[in-house]
Design goal:
This protein is mostly helical and about 120 residues long. About 45% of the residues lie in helices and about 0% in strands. It is built from five helices and no strands. The chain is rod-shaped. The two termini are about 35 Å apart.
């Protein structure tokens, strides 16, 4: 049976996200208001975060928090370059065979010795 993984933020993750300095108190108040809950501006942000994190959350809640926090997907750093060379498959195979013989003589046991030609 194939199991698919479901990723959802925990109440602790939501609590921590709301307590980030990027999330203003007005934004937290708006999150409550979007649920039909009116809270005082005098209520401590930590208390609001505790209360809001105890609610059930939808995808829209996560999207809202992500947009406030500015979460972006980082791309992997990649560097590539092209070498112009005249390299033949037979030259590469000869070098591999030579290194294989050298390693066997020196007592190196490798799993590569059981591999066939790729």
């Amino acid at each position: 049976m194939v199991q698919s993984s479901l990723h959802a933020a925990t109440d602790k993750a939501v609590f921590d996200a709301i307590n980030q300095h990027k999330v203003t108190k007005d934004e937290v108040l708006n999150m409550f208001f979007s649920r039909g809950v009116i809270v005082s501006k005098k209520t401590d942000k930590d208390d609001l975060a505790k209360e809001f994190s105890s609610f059930f959350h939808s995808y829209n809640d996560y999207e809202n928090l992500s947009s406030i926090l500015g979460v972006n997907n980082r791309k992997e750093k990649l560097t590539s370059y092209t070498l112009d060379t005249s390299l033949k498959v037979s030259d590469v195979e000869d070098s591999i065979k030579k290194n294989k013989r050298k390693n066997r003589r020196s007592g190196c046991n490798s799993r590569a010795s059981s591999l066939k030609r790729w």
